[in-house]
Amino acid sequence: MTALLEAHDLTRSFEVSQGMFKARRKLHAVNGISLDIRKGEVLGIVGESGCGKSTLARMLLGLLPPTEGGITLDGTDIRSLGRKGMARRVQPVFQDPYSSLNPRRTVASIVALPLEVHGIGTAAERRKQALGILDKVGLPQRFADRYPRELSGGQRQRVAIARALVMNPEVVVCDEPTSALDVSVQSQILNLLMDLRRDLGLTYVFISHNLAVVEHIATRVAVMYLGRVVELAETEALFRTPRHPYTKALLASVLTPEPGQGIPETGLGLAFPDPLNPPSGCPFHPRCPARISQCSTTVPRLLQFGRDAVACHLHDAGQSIPSPSDDGAT
Ligand code: SF4
Ligand code: MG
């Protein structure tokens, strides 16, 4: 598989004020991530709340510029494509179908809006195209003139998916697309996404805190911790033989079913560290049951093992992937 979307040493920091004196601090939400998304794959990205998944998603969509590093789509720097150029090729599906749909527009006009914004077709042609996409996502024509408030959560998420697909994109970045839905509806939406990928030849980036969901849909998985990718592997290999102690802990734990409701229970004893004050060395070391002496002083590099990669000193025998910004600073 060839790389379609590539992140090169991607970093995003935010200035935040902290404490009584409102001291300005730098938060590294994403810290030196290099990642390739291959044509036709479903790259799952997992990690606890606050690990930088959504920031990474917004950068991959071209909605948030990186502080350092860059992204290419089919070899072209996405900055040269602009927002509109990106929107034709990379589209989002976000978590909350309740807030992401305009309540004053009908379903057909929500789905047709991207075409309108890009000046594609006449109003009649746009409506026809919207109806065709609604059919593809399993919403019969009678839904076309309803308003979002008249739909269930699952139906709204189908509308959001239809809106993403109307531009005929190559990549769809899904950020927790099923997390706000009931469990029974979640699997319907996952199955729909998988059918659409097969029928339309789509590539997905699929972000979730829910490992079971990712195992179901992803072909490859990247595990994130405090802004970094700590393990990358084919889905089956990751779930059968995880290499990174954090991946092992995630797999052994029961994650909370809802995002945004505090720190998932990882069984690791210690809470997720403060991203404003990240630990030295391996960011996972205060919680790691397998840590060794250099873990508190040296940041482990992401090392390649065949097609997989892991960032952990226990696996230092792999082949190093040079990363210019991986100098130990967080
Ligand atoms: Fe644990 Fe050390 Fe590996 Fe980090 S580098 S995951 S602390 S063993
Ligand atoms: Mg998020």
TrEMBL record:
InterPro entries: AAA+_ATPase (IPR003593), ABC_transp_ATP-bind (IPR050319), ABC_transporter-like_ATP-bd (IPR003439), ABC_transporter-like_CS (IPR017871), Oligopep_ABC_C (IPR013563), P-loop_NTPase (IPR027417)
GO cellular component entries: plasma membrane
Keyword Nucleotide-binding attached: yes
UniProt KW Metal-binding keyword: no
GO-annotated biological processes: peptide transport; transmembrane transport
Subcellular location: Cell inner membrane
Organism field: Microvirga makkahensis
Keywords per UniProt: ATP-binding, Nucleotide-binding, Transport
Protein family (similarity comment): Belongs to the ABC transporter superfamily.
Record-given protein name: ATP-binding cassette domain-containing protein
One of the record's GO molecular function terms: ATP hydrolysis activity
Membrane-topology descriptor: Peripheral membrane protein
Gene3D superfamilies tied to this protein: P-loop containing nucleotide triphosphate hydrolases (3.40.50.300)
Matches recorded under Pfam families: ABC_tran (PF00005), oligo_HPY (PF08352)
ABC transporter domain mapped to chain residues: 5-251
Top-level division of the source organism's lineage: Bacteria
